[in-house]
Amino acid sequence: MAASPAYGEEKGGSSSLGEPEYGHDPASGGIFASDYKRHDDLKEMLDSNKDSLKLEAMKRIVAMIARGKNASDLFPAVVKNVACKNIEVKKLVYVYLVRYAEEQQDLALLSISTFQRGLKDPNQLIRASALRVLSSIRVPIIVPIMMLAIKEAASDMSPYVRKTAAHAIPKLYSLDSDQKDQLIEVIEKLLADKTTLVAGSVVMAFEEVCPERIDLIHKNYRKLCNLLIDVEEWGQVVIINMLTRYARTQFLSPNQNESLLEESAEKAFYGSEEEDTKDAKAEAASLAKRKPYVMDPDHRLLLRNTKPLLQSRNAAVVMAVAQLYFHLAPKAEVGVIAKALVRLLRSHSEVQYVVLQNVATMSIKRRGMFEPYLKSFYIRSTDPTQIKILKLEVLTNLANETNISTILREFQTYIRSMDKDFVAATIQAIGRCATNIGKVRDTCLNGLVQLLSNRDELVVAESVVVIKKLLQMQPAQHSEIIKHMAKLTDNIQVPMARASILWLIGEYCEHVPKIAPDVLRKMAKSFTNEEDIVKLQVINLAAKLYLTNSKQSKLLTQYVLNLAKYDQNYDIRDRARFIRQLIVPTEKSGALNKYAKKLFLAQKPAPILESSFKDRDHFQLGSLSHLLNAKAVGYQELPDWPDEAPDPSVRNVEVPEWTKCTSREKRKEKVEKPFYSDSEGESGPTESADSEPESDSEESGSSSSSGTSSSSSEEEDEEEEEEGSGEQSEEKEGEEEEEKRKKRKEKGGLRKASPGSAGSLPFPAAPCPLCSSRGLPRPLSPMGWAWWPMLSCGPWQLLSPAFGAVRTYELLHRMAGEGLSVEYCFSRRPFPGDPHMVAVQIQISNNTDAEVKSLRVSEPKLLAGMRIQEFPEIESLAPGDTASVVMGIDFCDSTQAANFQLCTHTRHFYVSIQPPVGELMAPVFMSENEFRKEQGKLTGMSEITEKLTLPEKCRSDHAIVQQVTSAANVGRVPCGADNEYRFAAKTVTSGSLVLITLEWREGAAAQLTVNSEKMVIGTMLVKDIIQALAQ
Amino acid sequence: MIHSLFLINCSGDIFLEKHWKSVVSQSVCDYFFEAQEKAVDVENVPPVISTPHHYLISIYRDKIFFVSVIQTEVPPLFVIEFLHRVADTFQDYFGECSETAIKDNVVIVYELLEEMLDNGFPLATESNILKELIKPPTILRSVVNSITGSSNVGDTLPTGQLSNIPWRRAGVKYTNNEAYFDVIEEIDAIIDKSGSTVFAEIQGVIDSCIKLSGMPDLSLSFMNPRLLDDVSFHPCIRFKRWESERVLSFIPPDGNFRLISYRVSSQNLVAIPVYVKHLISFKENSSSGRFDVTIGPKQNMGKTVEGVVMTVHMPKAVLNMNLTATQGSYTFDPVTKVLTWDVGKITPQKLPNLKGIVNLQSGAPKPEENPSLNIQFKIQQLAISGLKVNRLDMYGEKYKPFKGVKYITKAGKFQVRT
After folding, report:
1. Least confident of A349-358, A868-877, B395-404, B407-416
2. I need a labelling partner for A215 at 20 to 30 A (CA). Which of A147, A542, B219, B311 fits?
């Protein structure tokens, strides 16, 4: 009821949007009054206790802010609502608060306590949002509160809150830069964070607060490289740009060898001083020469991990990687970026604009890279002019002897364009091609001369200017052209072109001795009407003619100089006076007079037509400064490569810190050791300290294809490493998984290896053939579980090959569990406490970024008779950790699933465990006679017989026993007869006997008999065993 | 990074402003207006403008300038890409990114901008997360809201922001589970006067509309993945599997999104599906010219070429055009000098032709250049590169989804020089 009139009013409010005068005109009292009144009723609405009214009022206020109108007088009324329950009102109040708090600092303080409360909320999202708003209020008085809040949030257990803390750092810094030291501490702490969520934000904070503290990066360098692919796209850009700078300070130039080896052409780039001072540094230099360049593995890591990002959909990411490659990669590898950059040319025109600017710079230094894509830079008539001109620039840079004819043909089309600015640029481009490629100079010149008869004056003028430049290169051969141009002075009006023609005639007056004085005569006539630039050239021409041909031009020169003497422009007066003194001999004129001719008619070097993009690459590409070709505020210089590589060991991380990356890094060191002579010492000892021997023995115990010696596993590691060039998320996931499995092994298994040493474990040697299907939720390799049966005390120990087949089942997929993954397997050990229960071993791994708390089972939904013994509640599970627990389930000798809920402190997951029939029993031992006796009791309905054929590989005792024991938890019974196998077990709940007999007849034929009271179990068991044997 | 954002319409009104740090006065836009005036054409406004105290980075989308104010060094593409993402989000939320849509939904726009940037650094740009935070307006909801006073702000907390797969919201449920893929290929070409191809390449995208419950894990494979020369991926795609097996494996976002965009390797010759015969001439010393254009189909694998539209930017000297079209209709805008000929479907039996007289301004010199012809067309059920989807498999969920793949070929920047 109350809302609908308010809605109508809002309509009225928004309709006034269209009238710009509204409220802008305080003089019109009526409007002013109504405006004032409107605010009054907004206040009323805000004071009401109806959320809908408040919301309506806030919406109108926000609309006012959006239009840039002042709503600051409502501050007291709005700020009261900061604790409003309605979430949208709250959000809009935040918007208002952040906008006006700066202006009304005292009142803003009223809201602070609300946020402080929010900072303590158990919900991470509320904590984060409180911190976000608190830090956005730019009120200097709360700096200490903010500092405290940031520090606290930086060690929050939720990565989302930590991310928000990282965002808050630059806010605080801009409010009070005195806090820098404390903030750097927080940054240092957050840099060590290993979650992808935080990485991008903290690097952004680092770049804004302390980009000079490159030393903070060392320890985190490898981690950042490895996390990069999983960081959100905006964070990627920031990290890549920062790492580019980092790499420039820490690694050696990958192109230094080439520069030394290559011919003198390259010398210019790489500083000739180096050559000069060679004597001084002879020893060092020769040493450097002798030692071949080997890329630091960390340098390689960066290049490899960034490469897949060239495939990003985000143009900024692609550009960031491209500039990284341009600045850091060996020459031979830079080429990969061309394709990606060309792809960006399909994007929005603003993106094209920026990309083309960068391509233009790159194409000067690395022309070859873009040559295959020449045609992608062809210009369409619909391109905006600024894009056309940039494309033209690139085309010109790419021109060389082989492609010049195609390019020139393309240029010919462009010259006829309607867009005259573009035509002018094309003419300039032709000029540049002509100067750079001697072969086509004459062709270009002829083409340009033809343009002199173009109807468009701009085109002609531009041609004149370019021709002037070209003629300077070889004037003697082109007097015809000069004559032609002299004639143009009558028609052409563009000052720059007129000036160019006059200069040409003056400069080469001996080639056109007859025409020159005539031109001067004409120009003298029109002198007073010319532009300044033309006047100056007329004076020049006069002076030159006076010196070469004073007979014909003496009077004219005098005349021109007299005119100039009284010109309005002082430059021209000045020039006239100067020239008169210089060329007209008087008694006062000094020694210079003699040299006048030499001064004026000296040989002048031809201009070099250069790209405006030359040398722009001293700015980091992709940066704002590069685009503007001027240092922008806050730009960080891209440092030069160091001469000597700084100590690479600073990037080594102590083992206990990051299990994941240390293991990577150790692995790497092992792999790279042959090249890595310096750091040999450090990686050596850690290797021997790991638990390799144990895992080896375990692995060799299982039948799967494991590396038996550490050397072979290393080799495989290396292979994997190489194949995985350009690490990607899947790969990492895979690794993480492996890592976790490893941990499980330790934790559940021997519990003696300290968690720290987990990091130095070698990777299992590319264990499973499933590796190729990375990224799919893949079943764990059997090997990972190999330790379990070894713990159970039973005859199985003898049958170790069977354990390769112990199956694990998935209880909760990582995706469904929001990062929590749960797997279970049947450990086949008697469940302590209750012999009627089947022991189920449960592996819970926390793949989230947050701690998972109070994991427990609740609300089992069971069929009648079934019972469940829950595992003790797990209080907390740290991110990346894995816990293993055992629970008991009494399945009542049925294969019905046990359904229950798995609860964490935030979520409930419905899960179910369905036992295979073979797990519902426990082995029993009996002699052959006992077996026969029991079997005799269980005939008729209780006996199930099935014929089967054994596949090739199952025709050995060993294989048969293995398959049967893997399908069912049974014990073998000794048997006199050859080719007959007996197994016995009791069901767990009722203790009914299950007897299995397998008779192997000749060839492949066999017969399976199962005797059991429980017919259902018997039938199912037969099916399962046959299936197992058939595999 | 990004300090403030101003939205400016074509007539130069600032109709929305948003500040993420201290307030920057609107007057900073004067520098932008100055540049705009200098550029004459909206397309030629430089995207980056340097002013004494700030830098302005702007994009032009759907007749709106998004002008952002920057104070310190930042990669310009970062800002440009973000601004386009903002425009995309508006498009996604309101169906169009227009001044009226933004004005009508100013509160939602403000809330969106608030969530997308924190202190000028992008925070949440994935549409799935944003939609969890702020529900897009629908007619039904706005009616309900106005009656009940409830809000568009989601009361659930944005858990997606915390997840490992931020692009997919949790708890998706559909009664009909469907996955559609549109393979759209565009031919970019420059055809020269004589009809030979100067430059041609095929650019493609796969746009998907996925409405699947739960957490499906999809893998899409192609019959001939080698055709794809250069590919860019949505972040959901597992790069590794593409590298090793040339299979697209991903957990999709919910709803519409662009799965990949690709370029077909340039070695393959591009089959140009249409040809154009043209005769455009302006007579010297007379105020008229001739115009005669015929469009015909070329090798198009038995499919009809449809939706053919030709646009020509005529020289400035052209006053009027007096043409007859054998098929479709044409319009000529004497102000912008744009000729548009909507042809429709091409049938090989009767080739569409447009011819007649061009009236020129009397006294003006004859235009030197003949205008280029920009052609648009569409071919249904055909990917011109020959790319074919082999199969789509789903893992992780039990239901059977309905799957569909559609192919379409279009003209991209298809230009015929005359």
Report:
1. A868-877
2. A147
Q: Between residues 224 and 263 of chain B, which touch chain A (CB distance below 8 Å)?
A: 229-235, 238-241, 243-245, 249, 251, 258, 261, 263
The strand pairing partners of A81, in sequence order, are none
Please say if the pLDDT value at position A728 is more than 50: no
- Confidence check: pLDDT of A119 > 90: no
- Angle (CA) A38 B114 B129, round 5°: 130
- Distance, in Å, from the CA atom of A92 to the CA atom of A66, rounded to the nearest integer, reads 12
Alpha carbon distance B286, A830 (integer Å): 106
Tokens found for residue A884: 């293993």
CB A204 within 8 A of CB A166: yes
Which residues does chain A have within 8 Å of residue B245's beta carbon, measured at their own beta carbons? 772
* Residue A890 pLDDT level (bands cut at 50, 70, 90): confident
- DSSP H or E stretch at residue A363: helix A349-365
Distance in angstroms (rounded) separating the CA atoms of residues A896 and B156: 37
Q: Which residues contact B34 (CB under 8 A, 6 or more apart)?
A: none
pTM over 0.90? The answer is: no
Cβ–Cβ contacts within 10 Å for residue A880, how many? 18
Best to test chain A binding among B88, B164, B247 (most A CBs inside 10 Å): B164
Cβ atoms of A440 and A433 within 8 Å: the answer is yes
Considering only residues 45 to 74 of chain B, which have any Cβ-Cβ distance to chain A shorter than 8 Å? 46-48, 50, 55, 58-61, 70-74
For residue A579, give the nearest of A597, A567, A603, A552 by alpha carbon: A597
Residue among A65, A102, A819 minimizing CB distance to B22? A102
* Average predicted confidence (pLDDT) for chain A: 75
| Cβ within 8 Å of A, B 196-215 | 198-199, 201, 203, 214-215
Query: Helices A550-565 and A570-583 meet at what angle, rounded to 10?
Result: 150
State the amino acid at position A86 in one-letter form.
Answer: N
Neighbour count for residue A472 (Cβ, 10 Å) = 17
Please state the three-class secondary structure of chain B as a single string.
CEEEEEEEECCCCEEEEEECCCCCCHHHHHHHHHHHHHHCCHHHCCCEEECCCCEEEEEEECCEEEEEEECCCCCHHHHHHHHHHHHHHHHHHHCCCCHHHHHHCHHHHHHHHHHHEECCEECCCCHHHHHHHECCCCHHHHHHHHHHCCCCECCCCCHHHHCCCCCCCCCCCCCCCEEEEEEEEEEEEEECCCCCEEEEEEEEEEEEEEECCCCCEEEEEECCHHHEEEEEECCCECHHHHHHHCEEEECCCCEEEEEEEEEECCCCCCCCCEEEEEEEEECCCCCEEEEEEEEEECCCCCCCCEEEEEEEECCCCEEEEEEEECCCEEEEECCCCEEEEEEECCECCECCEEEEEEEECCCCCCCCCCCCEEEEEEEECCCCCCCCEEEEEEECCCCCCEEEEEEEEEEEEEEECC
Q: Do A60 and A17 form a contact (C-beta atoms < 8 A)?
A: no
Q: How far apart (Å, rounded) are the C-alpha atoms in residues A522 and A541?
A: 12
Q: In what order do the strands lie in the sheet with B14-19?
A: B14-19, B2-9, B64-70, B55-61, B48-50
Amino acid residing at B95? G
The stretch B48-65 carries a mean pLDDT of: 91
Judged against a pLDDT cut of 50, whether residue B201 lies above it is answered with: yes
Smallest Cβ distance to A99: which of B19, B41, B244? B19
Our CA dihedral for A379, A383, A387, A391, rounded to 10 degrees, sits at: -10
Structure tokens at A712: 């072979």
Residue A752 reports pLDDT greater than 70: no
Are A624 and B58 inside 8 Å of each other by CB?
Answer: no
More confident residue, B82 or A895: B82
